[in-house]
Design a protein that fits this description.
It is a single chain. The protein has one domain. Helix content is 16%, strand content 31%. The protein has one helix and eight strands; from the N terminus they run E-E-E-E-E-E-E-E-H.
């Protein structure tokens, strides 16, 4: 289901396109069927993702004594190293993704109907 969104684009406001890039990699215990879900708002020739949910790489969380590695995570900005994400279902992932897109659009002052 999620892979069918790859390449889909939605115009959220004049000139603001939310585009999906969905990729699959080999399934492992750390990586379920979904791999990456990105929203980007490209200007001419493309732009950096505003919101990204992925498990393409591990991130480390916790202090020095209680460090843990997680794969499922999301990025709030392009500079954000990632925050753990508790994946449960694809539908919940999509809902969380769109909620984060809405937050980002609101934060940037872009009118939307999300």
């Amino acid at each position: 289901m999620l892979l069918s969104l790859d390449g889909a684009e939605y115009e959220m406001a004049p000139g603001v396109i939310i585009g999906f890039a969905v990729r699959r990699t080999k399934t492992t215990p750390q990586r379920p069927q979904w791999h990456q879900l990105r929203a980007r708002a490209p200007a001419e020739g493309g732009g950096a993702p505003w919101v990204r949910f992925d498990n393409a790489h591990p991130i480390e969380r916790g202090g020095r004594r209680h460090k843990r590695v997680v794969y499922d995570h999301w990025h709030r900005t392009t500079r954000d190293e990632g925050r753990p994400y508790a994946f449960t279902t694809l539908l919940k992932l999509l809902d969380d993704f769109w909620q984060e897109v809405k937050r980002t659009l609101n934060e940037k002052g872009i009118p939307n109907d999300l």
